[in-house]
Every structure is written in C-alpha cells, then in structure tokens.
Amino acid sequence: MKLFEYRGKELFNKYGIAVPTGNLVSDKNDFANLKFPIVLKAQVPIGGRGKAGGIKKAKDLKEAKEKLNQIMGMDIRGFKVGKVLAEETADIKKELYLSISLDRTKRMPLIMASAEGGMDIESVPDDKIFKEWVNPLIGIQPFNIRNIVSKLGFGKEKSKEISKVLTKIYKLFREYDCELVEINPLIITGDGGVMAIDSKIIINDDAMFRHQDIIPEHVELTALEKDAKEKGITFIQLDGNIGVIANGAGLTMATLDALTHFKGKGGVFLDLGGTDDPEKVKQAFELMKKAKPKVIFLNLFGGITKCDTVATGVKAVISKEGIDCPVITRIKGMNEDEAKEILKDAGLITATTLQDAAQRSSDLAGGK
Amino acid sequence: MSIFVDEKNKVLVQGATGHQGVFHIGEMLNFGTKVVAGVTPGKAGQEVHGVPIFNSVQDGVDETGANTSLILVPARFAKDAVFEALDAGIKTVVTITENIPFHDAMEFVHYAKYKDAVLIGPNCPGIASPGKTKIGILPGSIFLEGNVGVASRSGTLTYEIVNSLKEKGIGQSTCVGLGGDPIIGTTFIDALDAFEKDKETKAIVLVGEIGGTAEEDAAEHIMEHISKPVFAFIAGRTAPTGKRMGHAGAIIARGKGTAASKIKAFEKADVKLAKFPTDIADLVEKHL
C-alpha cells in the first residue's frame, strides 16, 4: 500500500527524522499555525504531481486560499485530489536522494543514495547513484553506512547527520514491512541540518495484518476489484472486452496473451486459483457478469482441481441466472471429458485447443 | 538422477492436520514419496494416513530421521515454521504458503543459506521427480519419467506444460516450482546449474513471467555456463504496468520486468521461445 506523503511524514516524525512544519488544509483557518511563504502539495498516490500543477507556492493567506481552491478537487492522472498538505518553505542548500528498497535478485534491502536529489531518480546517471546492500539477518551496520555515505562527498558533520537519517529509515523500513522508503529530496538546510522534503513509502500488502495503525486512505482498486478481494478472488479489470476466467495466475496471464495474438483484448483477469468449490465458481461468474464483458473465455487446467466439479458449478450459475454473452470454454486435464459434456449441456461453446478458443473469443468480441 | 530431491528425501509436513495437509499427504504417499512425519503443535500422537504427528519439528526429526520439510502453514506463521525446520537440522525446505510478508521471506531465505539448506518457494507448488518423489501440491497424474528438466515461477501453467510434454511421450527428470513471489529461495540460475550437472537431464524448460529480472539474469547465465538446450515460455506479454497480475512478484515497476525485455534476453542467449504454453512440447519434441 502506498502511503500519502503526509502519512509518510508522520512516520518520519515518529522515527525522529526532521520534516517541514505543516498540516493538512481544507479552509482558511487551517493556515493559522503556518509561517508564510508556504507550499501547497496535492496528496496523491502517484508521481509527477508537480508537472501536473499539484504543487504551488503561496506568499500570503490570500494567495494560499486561491491556490488551495485550484488544487483541491484537481484531477491528477485520474486521481481526484481530496487532501492538500501545506508546509513552510525550507531553506534548501543542497538536495540529495536517499532510499531503501527490496532487491529481488539479491533478496536484501538495497540502500541507494545520490548527491543529485530533487529530480526523478530514473533520470540521474548510474555513476551518480551509490548502492549498498544490507544482510537482513544482521541488520544495518556502521560499515554499511560508512561505505555509502562517504561516497556522497560531504564533510564530517553533514555526513554524520545523513548517517543518522539512514539508520532511522532502515529501522522504519524493517519495522513497517516496507517495499520502499524514499526521501527525494533529503535536503541540507542553511544551518547545516537535514530534512525530508518529500516521502514515498510503500508497505507490503501481505504484512498489513501487523500494522493496524496504518489506515488505508485511498483505494487503488475499482469497486468490483474490491468486492472480489473481499471474496478472496483475484480479479483485475483491464481495458479490453473479453472476460478471462482461468485457474492460476500464470495460466490466466498466458490466456490474455493468447487473446492478444488473435487481436482480442482481455477486459478482466480472473484467477480462480486452486478452487473447485461450486460457491466460489458461482461468485466468480457473478463478478464477471457485473464487469459486462462482450465474451467470456473460461480456460481451465485440471490438476488437483477437477474440471467436472468446476463445470458443474458453472452450469449451476448459468442455468439458474442465465448469461447474456457468449461463453467459450477450453478444458484440459483431470476429468476433462465429463466437464466438456456438462458445459455443452449448459449451452456453452467448447473449444479443443487454447489457440482455437482464443481465436473464437477474439472474433466474437470483435463482432465477427 | 534428478535435481534437489530424490527417493532419499524423508519428508515431514508442517501444517499436517489441516484440510490441505491431510489431502496432500495422501497424494504424496500415492506418488511414492516417503512422508515420515507431520507436525501440528498440540496434536502429537495423532496420525494422518498412518503418518505420525508430532508437536515440534525437532521431535519429528528425532523420531523419524526426516531431512526435508514441506511448509503448508498459514502465511503469518510461515516464518516461524521455516526457522523451526532449519534449526532442527532440516536441509531441504519446500514452502508452499502464499502471501508471506516479503520481509519474512527475506529473513528465512538468508537463514537457509546460512544453514546451507535448499529452500524452494515460497508461493510455489513444490517439486517432483517422477519415479522418485513429489514434495508439494503438484498433481501426480501429469508426470512421466524422462529427461526434461522444468523450472517455473508458476503453478497451473506449469502443470499444463508438463502435461503437454507427457502427451507427446516426453518425460521429466525434475519439475521444480520456484514460486510467484518477488523473494524466493531457489532461482532459475540455481535450477539451471543443477540441471546442467544432472546426467539424466537432456533439455531444460523455463517458465517465466513478468516482474523482476530473474529471466534476464538466467539468460546471462545460460550464455556463459549452460551447454544443454533451453526452452522457455514467458507469461504476461500483455500485462499493464503497475498491476500485480495475481502473483505478488508479477508486476512491471518503473519500466523493469516487462515480457519484452525477458524475451529479448532469452533470444540473445539462443533460448527457444514458445508463443503458446503448449507449443513448448512441440519445440522440445523437434529437438529431441
């Protein structure tokens, strides 16, 4: 889960990392505790808000109210701004970049630091980004910190301040099960202190059960996706018009790929997983119907899951509630012959191969 | 021969008395796997299909000489279970559990390395060497003894591919499910090295998907170290950026992890790529 900037800064505060004085604002009274000039920042869970006009400066209360009105409710790449953070402007002498992320290859926390902060890290040349990996069993050690901080080329005092921040964000990264903690920029102020001007924190969804203090504020899921999640079904809406139901994430992805090969386009990714429970199958079909696909493509491989049990579940939903779009099925594996009979009996189209089924689905969805 | 596991593995199942545990102990016994113990705290003295249940892994190891553990416990208890197995001296841990926090996986992956143990998974279907053993939840009916090694990040898609090999009479030396998570213990590179050494394996099939750079790393490794022919399928060619496609590890993030990049890397390494999952069998058949 991506945290809003202000939530991330609350965590920075908790871990003793300095952030600018500021608060959320929704009307003129909310500016009472702030010293002008200030900066207003749209709270959105996506990058690039500055370019989209989501960050604006204000020199006095009158200007602040105007800018607040402009930002609140603004649409930033499909995300409607509902929260605005106002902060006192900082005295920036130097901007750095600091982050900790999960390195999938080394399977270790990866610290990245650069003396070139304040811009998208993707646009910083590789030789200006320094990296250090931490053994998760022993945790961050002074040598790790020396290795990376010394490369930034600051004097003793500033290096010491940066080192302290690094120790603190490592602790935060581990204690909150983060996929990413990023400070860009981390600034050095006129009086030699360091301060986090922005925060980007992503917490691993699978670890949310042990972080009850983190309240999900924005939903990155559509209404149907949310509904599916509550039912324990993997359901992702895409921009095509063919609803794919398959078992297993890999097979579902491969099914979408096969459709694309025949110029079709997947509109829903629905992974039944290892279930052949008729109730789950029923729920899956109901969700799929609500997404209103032009064609449904059911692609099953029965291993442990028995094809005929799934087919019985499908038949039950269709004979009871009907279905207003064609359903193409391709069934392979355990008890496939029985399953095909059941589906034929329910009036569904049974194809022999993945290619055949993908072609038929694509043609039907394209109006042929 | 086979890789990572063979008929000598004596398997202990952690999470043995749950629905999954009971079912898969039966399936493994049918396949010929030596399942010697189960562990569920508080249920010592019970039996599942004749397999004795113990309160702790250490008890199970002491009583039965188990050297392998299959982890079927829920996600929030998985880290504890893996640590317990490793501390009891288990040298092969197969972790099926899905939705394990990434930080937990990171810790136990490193601890397994420190203990010189093989860790497969998490979020994987397990490993099977036809004719020898099956440790996990893979369906026994799809396998055939033979010479093709299979390593995959996926479950059902792998069953589909293995089944299509079987239909052409092409058997497998070992099929290992590496797992769909971003942090996994055994990688394509580990599997490639093991298949390269294994005399029985004549060809290698890799089943990859979007997310991370495991396939790109594998391609580099193949160019330098692997002499056996490699075939591959990559799932997720049409997946959008930023969405987790069912597997926690299947996500294109910051421009990294696209199928296009993986396909390009494999082409450079002269790996033969299949357009559809079932085409793998045709490619392998032509070659053998």
Q: Can you tell me about this structure?
A:
The complex is a heterodimer of chains A (368) and B (288). Chain A has ten helices and 18 strands. The longest helix of chain A has 20 residues, at 156-175. In chain A, a hairpin with a 4-residue loop joins strand 10 and strand 11. Chain A folds into three domains: 21-88, Dna Ligase, domain 1; 92-210, ATP-grasp fold, B domain (D-amino Acid Aminotransferase, Chain A, domain 1); 223-365, 3-Layer(aba) Sandwich (Rossmann fold). Chain A has 368 residues and is of the alpha+beta class. In chain A, the strands form four sheets. In chain A, strands 7, 8, 9, 10, 11 and 12 form a six-stranded antiparallel sheet that branches. Chain A has a six-stranded mixed sheet with strand order 13-15-14-16-17-18, sandwiched between helices. The model of chain A has no long low-confidence stretch (mean pLDDT 93). Chain A is elongated. Chain A has helices at 5-14, 61-71, 142-149, 156-175, 223-231, 249-261, 278-290, 307-321, 336-345, 354-365; strands at residues 22-25, 38-42, 55-58, 75-76, 79-80, 84-88, 92-103, 108-114, 130-133, 178-189, 194-196, 200-203, 234-237, 242-246, 266-271, 295-302, 327-333, 349-351. Chain A starts with a helix and ends with a helix. Chain B has nine helices and 14 strands. Chain B is 35% helix and 23% strand. Chain B has helices at residues 19-31, 57-64, 75-87, 102-114, 156-167, 188-197, 214-225, 259-268, 279-287; strands at 10-14, 34-39, 47-48, 51-54, 68-71, 92-95, 118-120, 126-129, 133-136, 145-152, 172-177, 203-209, 230-235, 272-273. In chain B, helix 5 packs across helix 9. Chain B folds into two domains: 10-120, NAD(P)-binding Rossmann-like Domain (Rossmann fold, 3-Layer(aba) Sandwich), CATH 3.40.50; 139-287, 3-Layer(aba) Sandwich (Rossmann fold), CATH 3.40.50.261. Chain B is globular. Chain B is an alpha/beta fold and 288 residues long. In chain B, the strands form two sheets. In chain B, strands 3-4-2-1-5-6-7 form a seven-stranded mixed sheet, sandwiched between helices. Chains A and B meet through helix 6 and strand 15 of A and helix 4 and helix 5 of B.
